[in-house]
Design a protein that fits this description.
single chain, alpha+beta, Glucose Permease (Domain IIA), 8-stranded antiparallel beta sheet, 3-stranded antiparallel beta sheet, 3 helices, 35% strand, Dup_hybrid_motif, phosphotransferase system, PTS_EIIA_component, sugar transport, PTS_EIIA_1_perm
Length: 175
């Protein structure tokens, strides 16, 4: 009798996990809402010349950064302007909110998750105060990168159009 209830509850939780599984495990969702642009248009050569990785950028309009895929938050920069993740397939990601925002020393950013936490796509990671960034004369261009590009067979970014955090696919890849 107890196994009946145990199996009943276990089967329900497994069904819930299936519902939360991303439709495409070979894609990154927009980590923040805004306008997609190619890396080549990011006014910083580290990103525009793909020295830090390959992907795309978003001119942010939203205020919440979410996980673009399932994985582990492997680094939250002390200044909270960037987050690194490692996906289950080994790909390493960097979400760098704005340009030269390290100079803000955390001002305008609220960390919502701890380093080392496993997250699902869409989990809120950071709150961003765009007004603080803009008031300092800094760019809102937010690169979304796969940093270990050699681990991917192909990387295909979306480079135009409006994107919605946690919904719009912004990078497709093959591993």
């Amino acid at each position: 009798m107890f196994n009946f209830f145990k199996n009943l509850f276990n089967s329900n939780s497994k069904k819930e996990e299936v519902v939360n599984t991303p439709v495409n495990p070979n894609a990154l969702l927009a980590p923040i809402s805004g306008k997609a642009i190619p890396l080549s248009e990011v006014p910083d050569p580290v990103f525009s010349e793909k020295l830090a990785g390959d992907g795309m950028a978003i001119l942010i309009e939203g205020d919440t950064v979410v996980a673009p895929a399932d994985g582990e938050v492997t680094l939250v920069f002390k200044t909270k302007h960037a987050i690194a993740m490692t996906l289950d397939n080994g790909l390493e990601l960097l979400i760098h909110v704005g340009l030269d925002t390290v100079s803000l020393e955390g001002e305008g950013f609220e960390q919502l998750i701890e380093q080392g936490t496993r997250v699902k796509a869409g989990t809120p990671l950071l709150k961003v105060n765009k007004d603080v960034i803009l008031s300092k004369g800094l760019s809102l261009a937010t690169p979304v990168l796969i940093t270990n590009v050699d681990a991917a067979k192909s990387i295909t970014p979306v480079e135009s159009g409006e994107v919605v955090a946690g919904e719009t696919v912004v990078v497709k890849f093959e591993v």
